[in-house]
Design brief:
The chain is about 75% helix and about 0% strand. With about 140 residues, it is mainly α.
Length: about 140
């Protein structure tokens, strides 16, 4: 089992990478190599962050469609880059993670949103993730 602090740091690294990628047209796989050169991390952090990043990028359209459905009254272009990527990472963990309980994924997203987002980010992220959890049904 991976240490919770390692996972938290990996989520932060995944957010940092995904946020930076929002402003480029670069291939994400090539950009990821450069990211790790410029942001060295422990092996466990890198491994978990890589898994999150790959999962989000491979399912980005699916995740974004779910986020758009859950973010009532919010056009997807109005969702901040930080908030959108925090939600993407948490939603990936909720839907495709095998060893992270849903409440942990949501709580971790809130903690990361507090660190990197605006003052309203945790409340917004919580609302969207709670709605996504409800939409998924009782198994999530």
């Amino acid at each position: 089992m991976i240490n919770p602090r390692t996972r938290r740091r990996a989520r932060e690294r995944a957010l940092q990478f995904l946020f930076g990628l929002e402003f480029t047209a670069y291939d994400w796989r090539e950009s990821l190599e450069s990211f790790w050169v410029n942001s060295p991390s422990k092996a466990g952090v890198k491994a978990y962050a890589d898994a999150l990043i790959e999962g989000v990028m491979e399912r980005r359209e699916e995740l974004d469609a779910m986020i758009a459905e859950a973010a009532e009254h919010w056009a997807s272009d109005r969702i901040g880059h930080i908030e959108r990527n925090v939600i993407r990472v948490a939603l990936y963990e909720l839907r495709h993670g095998t060893d992270v309980p849903p409440n942990v994924a949501i709580n971790e997203a809130l903690e990361v949103a507090k660190l990197y987002g605006s003052d309203d980010a945790p409340r917004f992220v919580n609302g969207v993730l709670d709605r996504l959890k409800q939409m998924a049904g009782p198994e999530t």
